[in-house]
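Morning!

As promised:
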Amino acid sequence: DQQVKQNSPSLSVQEGRISILNCDYTNSMFDYFLWYKKYPAEGPTFLISISSIKDKNEDGRFTVFLNKSAKHLSLHIVPSQPGDSAVYFCAASSIQGAQKLVFGQGTRLTINP
Amino acid sequence: DAGITQSPRHKVTETGTPVTLRCHQTENHRYMYWYRQDPGHGLRLIHYSYGVKDTDKGEVSDGYSVSRSKTEDFLLTLESATSSQTSVYFCAISGGWGSSYGYTFGSGTRLTVV
């Protein structure tokens, strides 16, 4: 049972435009959400996070939106740059317990010049 | 990434042989995790540790065992490697949610079982 789902395996966006990556979750106990970025042959690196007490968190070009009623979060990248081409993983956890992260399948983002 | 290293980076092994992957951290973090990455599945938790000698199973633990005899080292052992265990394995560490950064990942070990 996939508790965190990224339904788009890939996304292609033109440089300078907005990239929107989506993520859905099913476990209502999740209260902390993160996005990770992964380049080939490297480990994932932390990008941005949001707790369930917020509905938006912004860090430079990256904004994460959380819709708890729909169990949906999205990552917006504006403007998109060639260096943003990578695989993006959505992850969720409950702050209680052993702090295990549950990851989605990932979305491969390609930024075209 | 600085503070966490995985070894080896690449390994090819034969079906039925035991294999041990090592994760070493210099951050003194309490939590350590082993994940595997496979196409279409993202990252799936194999085992994790919440302290020395304290470990527990993740969602895909069958065929794997772990040990943590000291804070800095977390070993993942494939008791008898199978082709279905061909994957990229990532170790991660966490100091807790106070940092808000979640996990720090190692660079991964690409394991091929032939």
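Chain A has a mean pLDDT of 94.

Hope this helps with the figure draft.
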